[in-house]
Amino acid sequence: MPDASLGESSANIRRRRVARYLRTESGAAVLLVIVTVVALAWANSPLSDAYFELWHLDVGFNFGPLGLHMDLHHWVNDGLMVVFFFLIGLEVRQEFAHGSLRDRSRARLALIAGVAGVVLPALLYVLIVGLAGSEGLRGWGAVVGTDTAFMLGTLAIVGPRLSGQLRVFLLTLTVVDDFLAVSIIGIVYSEEIRVVPLLIALASLFGLWLLGRTRQWRATPYVLIVIVLWLATVYSGIHASLAGMAAGLLIPAYATQRHKVVAARQLFRDFWQSPSAASARAVDCGLSQGISVNERLHEFLRLPTALLIVPVFALANAGVDLRGGLLAEAFGSPVTWGVIAGLVLGKLLGIGLITLAAVRLGLGRLLAFGTTSDLGRQATVGVLVSMMLATLLGWLIFKVAARRWGEETADLPMVLEPPVDPEVDHIRGPEDAQLTLVEYVDFECAYCAHATGSWEDLRAHFGDDLRYVVRHLPHHPHGPIAARASEAASNQGMFWPWLDFVFTRQHALEREDLIGYAVELGLDVDRFIADLDSSAVIERVERDLASAVASGAHVTPTFFVEGRRLRGSYDARTVTAALEASRRGPRTQEVPS
């Protein structure tokens, strides 16, 4: 009996580990590869008829005079995958709102790369197929799009260990890429575009924009309009993935609203004192209002998309019957080589070289053939071969970059630069403490005020084993002058009293207010005013700004635990766990510059 219990416990542990792994990007990518192999094996097995018959099953519904019937393959590509493209749109909108794409030069670079990634592959395809005089010339639309799902999966497997910024860049250029590709397919290859459904789709997009302008925080109105948008787009004859991506880009994203979070805390207090269904619903609504509907929808859809929708898409599309001499026929076809050249060389040169040129100058997937025709199957073989070649080429490029230039990541830096210097940095606690916590702050950032307030909890837990360091990252309107004021106070040995005092008065950070605070704290006001605009103080704040850029800190608050950037939540319990983990492991604070 004990042995059985232990065996069951081990099995449960293994299941939890597998489930945890599948929730990671690399785990989802491995699942995608497994499903792709299963699809190919199934399509080339004695059960291949069952595979193809499955995706040709008619599925649909009738609702009064309206009805929608498609085969299962189209339900996957025009239905389920719309959720995937919707998710991509949500994520890119977040980056434009409060992520790395707030920098217009980065967004412009992705736009240029996206256009180049459409034009050059098409030109290469036309050149190769045209010179061969093949009847497949009209199929240049097969190479203009990027298979975003497979691209992200490949990046997770062969890409750098940390690739957040590269992922954002690729997502953004594929938004441009797919918009252009689907528009081209819709205009050039669509047999019929229905005007009335198209107008309804455009009206739905306007409705989403209007909801965003009115700051509607409930998710239900957005979801209902997106469903109408999808149905209208399908009826119009335009590929529905375009609607999904456009809808995602129109769902508003904004930084978490601190005053709504504070209000939700009072609602939770009410629930604590008098638990009821009504007070629980009030807490739920209060919490939802503090987080943008974009972020809530993204979090809700992320795992189902990675673990269900994308694998089903791969199962439905990767199965190609390679028997009967198809491979030999395909490799002798200019269509296949046109697709390979377009998707491998065209994308690489179009995106890579044009991006490099744009940086140096300071400038900031649909097949056009029927998939059952001979040309369609040859093009599909070309796409599959292109995926393998592009994966190998990407792996090789990343390996060369890591070995020759030391580029082992494609993300913002993770290591604190420069390391803590007691002669320069503001340190609270013993200078030689075992553990170090660094926070980049903005005096106008409400989250900094509350996160910095968790110092007392950390101090109570770690005592003299912890030193706490503050560096400046002013990015709010009053942030720069407030940072300079703190340094002026520091010149009189009052940095920490100033920080504690001003963080409770974030609503008033004008110059006159700051001078008034100097009076209240008993500072030498004349000296304070002189230091406020002195070159030494300005250089001190700029030093921290340069440090933030070099360390990968671009929002506040950003924490570094033992010299490593903390990702995710920064509440006192999470920070405490990170510090405890670093204490148990090797110390990484003292990193050579």
- The proportion of residues forming helix, as a percent range, comes to 55-70%
Mean model confidence by pLDDT: 81
| Helix run count | 24
Low confidence ranges = 1-7, 587-593
Please outline the major beta sheet: 5 strands, mixed
Strand order of the largest sheet: 3-5-4-6-7
**Strand fraction band?**
5-15%
The gross shape turns out to be globular
Category from helices, strands and their pairing = mainly alpha
Write a brief structural summary.
With 593 residues, this protein is mainly alpha-helical. The chain has helices spanning 2-22, 25-43, 48-55, 72-98, 104-131, 148-158, 164-189, 195-213, 219-236, 240-250, 258-273, 277-290, 293-317, 326-331, 334-361, 374-405, 446-452, 455-462, 479-490, 495-502, 511-520, 525-532, 535-551, 572-584, and strands at 58-63, 66-71, 426-428, 435-441, 466-472, 558-561, 564-565.
Describe the structure.
- The protein has 593 residues and is mainly alpha-helical.
- It has helices spanning 2-22, 25-43, 48-55, 72-98, 104-131, 148-158, 164-189, 195-213, 219-236, 240-250, 258-273, 277-290, 293-317, 326-331, 334-361, 374-405, 446-452, 455-462, 479-490, 495-502, 511-520, 525-532, 535-551, 572-584, and strands at residues 58-63, 66-71, 426-428, 435-441, 466-472, 558-561, 564-565.
- Strands 3-5-4-6-7 form a 5-stranded mixed sheet, with helices on both faces. Strands 1-2 form a two-stranded antiparallel sheet.
- Helix 19 packs antiparallel against helix 20.
- The termini are far apart.
- Mean pLDDT is 81; it is low at 1-7 and 587-593.
